[in-house]
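# nightly structure sweep
# worker-07 picked up a monomer target from the shared queue
# config: single-sequence mode, recycle default, output format = structure tokens
# input follows
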Amino acid sequence: MNDKFEQLPDNVQREMLKFIEKKKMDKDAQKKLIDSVYERYSKQNYDPEEPVGVITAQSLSEPATQMTMRTYHFAGTAGIQVTLGLPRLLELFDARKEPRTPAMNIFIKPDFQSPEKIKKIAEDIKEVKIRNIMKFTTIDLTDFWIRAKIDMAKVQRIGIDMSKLSKKIKVRNATVTVEKDEITLTAKKKDIKNLHKLKYSFLETHIKGIKGITQVVVTKDNDEWVINTLGSNLKKVFDIEGVDSIRTTTNNIFEVYDVLGVDAARNAIINQVNYTMDEQGLGVNVRYIILLADLMTLDGNIKSIGRYGISGQKASVLVRASFEETKKHLTSASFRGEKDPLQGVIENIMLNKVISMGTGAFSLVGKIPEIHKSTTKAASRKPAKKVVKKSVKKTTKKAKK
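# output follows
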């Protein structure tokens, strides 16, 4: 291998070595391959002090103005809607803790690809509440009790054990009794307003499945069964037998961060932004997205691009003040005695100075040639002679007078 090969990144080197070994290439073919890859790699590099941040901001913001503000149906999964377009992009860049429509793509291991096993996994995932298995409810305002009539056909189909149901229903200030196909909730406090609150808590009681996953749709993709969900709980889904935890994904980047770490969250941001852009038919170079994701996860946490994130935590006082909350930043900086080194773009533009980008980042250094002594003496004599002549002329005029 030559010097060009050594200058390539490690992952590119590994891929090239695998390709060379697979194709059994001779030295001439290897040299041509290395030269071709190195030429393309060199074109991808940016020049020193090139403003890549400004180019990234422009490359992401301009296509975002063409995006639609609507929700989009998952292909082939009627009934499940996820937020896409500009609202989804804002969710990602603002690093919101909970997306408007959390969703998961759950992949299943090859051993569990039969329809019966897929159905059982889907039933184990979907959240079931009391309201999902009841026919109707009755409220007694005299004796202060609530009674729910249970649909036994649904109970059997879902696989709920009625004998254990009373232990799962826990409502404050009330006692629960289960008799055949009826559940009775008796209030301890004799208050009508409190009774209606108890009814809501009772009907929303979780009895089976994973909390937060309200809808489950099973589809077939590339000859394998995949489960799409509305709602997300990555940690609990990984615990279900048959779920492929390596390929299963969620659109909640903070869940990915909590379960799999910051590197996985960085990849999730890249994939989600890239998917949102592609879905709208907007081609954005993935390197710009990677740069932004790196910036958001640089210190081991997920930070937003806003006043409480990256923009509000910059080192330059003037940059922070120019974005939002000007008075707050200038006042706090004066209390702390902060200094601004004026090394960025915005602060130099504010002060009408040359920015430290491109050619402005470099200082010209030159050697000034020395002036010869004889030329300096000659130059110093000439004005003296003129003065003498003028003075002589003035004296002769006075003498004549």
